[in-house]
Design goal:
This protein has 4 helices and 5 strands. It is of the alpha+beta class. Strand 4, helix 3 (104-118) and strand 5 (123-126) form a beta-alpha-beta unit.
Length: 155
């Protein structure tokens, strides 16, 4: 299984933003019991802050995940490198429905870890929303450990 990360074009980046803003807003709303309208505003504000120069923003890496064997884009990966601390953070990994359960997620994450390690990055973090147990199991299988737990109750 071979994949490669391809930097997004401006058009692809704009399409990704059209996908990620409502997707993240839905996660915020579902997991933090936040009204969807407020979550959408927070999501838009965050994306504008993190991507002042779109896909060319410092420290942000947004790529298509391309399957060499299938000769198609099978997902997207967005991560950030904090060079001052040698840390990286995965904001989003998405494998398209028809490419799931084939090991691509594991492969991409292990390949990213090797690439970052070779570049001197010493830690890789991510966030898992509570309503995504499949992602939690994948990350746990790959050796990620909880660093904190945020809990909430509707009253």
């Amino acid at each position: 299984m071979k994949t490669t990360l391809l930097k997004m074009t401006e058009e692809e980046f704009d399409q990704y933003m059209n996908f990620i803003i409502p997707d993240y807003a839905n996660d915020l709303s579902a997991n933090y019991m936040m009204p969807l309208e407020k979550a959408m505003a927070e999501s838009k504000d965050l994306m504008l802050k993190l991507f002042p120069n779109k896909q060319n923003s410092d420290g942000q890496f947004v790529s298509n995940i391309y399957s060499v064997e299938e000769e198609k884009t099978i997902g997207m990966l967005w991560y950030h490198i904090q060079a001052e601390t040698n840390d990286a953070f995965i904001y989003h990994i998405y494998i398209k429905e028809d490419s799931r359960q084939k090991g691509y997620g594991s492969y991409v994450l292990q390949d990213l870890e090797d690439t970052l390690n070779n570049a001197g990055i010493t830690s890789l973090g991510l966030n898992v929303f509570g309503n995504n147990p499949n992602a939690f199991r994948l990350y746990e299988k790959l050796g990620y450990k909880p660093a904190s737990t945020f809990m909430k109750k509707s009253i």
